[in-house]
Sequence to fold (119 residues):
Amino acid sequence: MAKITAKLNYYHLSPRKVRLVADLIRGKEVNDALAHLKFAAKRSAPVMEKLLKSAISNAKNNNKIDIDSAILYIKEIRVDEGPAYKRWRPVWRRMAHPYKKRTSHINIVLEEKKEEAKK
Fold:
């Protein structure tokens, strides 16, 4: 079975904050995950919802999976650190302190649940 993936690179929010939302939906079925993301009060929740919908669309169009009858779940969701933008802020006595604006790379892998044979 082919991997159903969607990814977002260079998202301008730190990975630490994005992982809070990723942990909410890891391992859940797609419909449950969408419901959780709809009501999550985090800045990354709408972006994760859009990415999850993109993965569902990839399953439908690229892998020819019937979304209505198939049960998809989130097999893997990974939030990696992207490059950080380095900036400087002025402080006392004409000095400058560095700080980083961090970015994230988000990868979602979906898989279809196999129906177990009932005895």
Observations:
- The chain has a mean pLDDT of 94.
- Strands lie at 4-11, 72-81, 85-91, 95-101, 104-112.
- The chain has three helices and five strands.
- The CA atoms of residues 16 and 79 lie 9 Å apart.
